[in-house]
Amino acid sequence: MYRLLIVTEKQSVRDMFEGMSGWEVMGFKQPRLRATTEEALACMEKHHIDAIAVDETEAFADLNAHIEANCPTMLRFAVEATPEEQQKTIRVLDRLLNQIRADHSNNQYDENNALQYTRDRQMKALLGGMIPTEKELTARLRMLRCQEQADVPCVVARLGLDEEDPFLTERWHYGSDRLEVALRNFFGGDQPHMLVHVAVVSQDEVRVLCYPRGGKMLDADSVAGFIHEVAQQVENYMGLRMKVLDVQSIPGLKVFAREHGAN
β-pairing, 242-250 with 154-161? Predict the structure, then answer.
C-alpha cells in the first residue's frame, strides 16, 4: 500500500479527502492530512511517504524547499477541484508508483534509477502521442519531479529508420527498447545546455527531444547540427543508418498531447 500526505490549510480540501472512500482498492492507505509545515515535517520523519500534495501558498515555502532539497524521489501531485478529478489523478499516481517500484534489472534496486527509468518511459509515451491531454501531461511531469515543463519552447527531431537496413534485419535482435537505450547513450541525456530524450516511436521513426536548461532557448539550426553529428556517429560505430527527416522548434511539450492532434 502506498502512503500519501496532504498538507493544506483549507478545510474544504480536508473534507474532500476525508470523504473519499476506496483507498485500499486503489492501492493506498488512508491519506494523512496535516495543516502546517511543522506537522508535515514531523509526519515525514516518522512515516515513509510515497507522494505528497502541498497547498501552493507562501505559507509552505519552507516545506517545498525541504522537499526539493531532501526528498528527490518523493512524487508530488495536485489537489483537484472535485473527488472525481482527484480519483483520476490518484489512479495515474498509482500507475507511476507501480512503475517506479518494479524491479527492471538484475542489479540491486535503486530508487533514483527507477525514477529516471519511469521518466524515460513517460517521455517515450509523450513523444509517441500517448498522453491524452495537456492537463495530464502537466500532472505527470509534476508527479515525477521532471525539470521539463509543458509550455517551454524546445526542439524536436525526427529520424527515419529503414526497415530493410541489414543492421535491423540481420544484426540487431534486441528489440526497440534496447535500441532506444543504445541511441540514448549516443545522444546523451544530460547536455550542458539541454536535456535530450530519445524515443523509438515506430519501426521506421526515432524522435529526439531537446529541452533547454538554464533559461536559454535553443536554436533549431544548432540543434540540427548536433543531431546530424550524432546520427553520423551512430552509423560509424553501430552501422545503423538514420536519415534526419526534420528538426523544428515547437512551442512546448504540450503539442504532443493527443488533444492537439499533433501525433
Answer: antiparallel
